[in-house]
């Protein structure tokens, strides 16, 4: 497995609370703005979509690509971040 970013480590280290969507690994300023424009302004809203998709990697990656244009690395970083967060807190 590839190493995780500092952003990933910080995100999965604590409860999500009211963190903005760009607190998610793989989601920077540009993708964050695109997600916000579609109503996904907080990390927990993206988590909701992740759970609606039953934590399925392929479905979530496709959704992220279609919703904000995330590339393969960004998709994987965001998926891994949410998966690990769920493993720790759900």
What's this, in brief?
The protein has helices spanning 6-12, 29-37, 43-52, 57-68, 72-89. The protein is mainly alpha-helical. Belongs to the BAF family.
List the main descriptive attributes of the protein structure presented here:
single chain; 90 residues; mainly alpha; DNA polymerase, domain 1; 5 helices; 62% helix; 0% strand; globular; Barrier-to-autointegration factor
Outline the secondary-structure elements.
Elements: H1 6-12, H2 29-37, H3 43-52, H4 57-68, H5 72-89
GO molecular function, one term: DNA binding
Keywords: Chromosome, Cytoplasm, DNA-binding, Nucleus
Organism: Oncorhynchus tshawytscha
Structure explained in plain terms:
Helix content is about 60%, strand content about 0%. The chain contains 5 helices and no strands. The protein is mainly alpha-helical and about 90 residues long. The radius of gyration is 12 Å and the shape is globular. One of its GO terms (biological process) is chromosome organization.
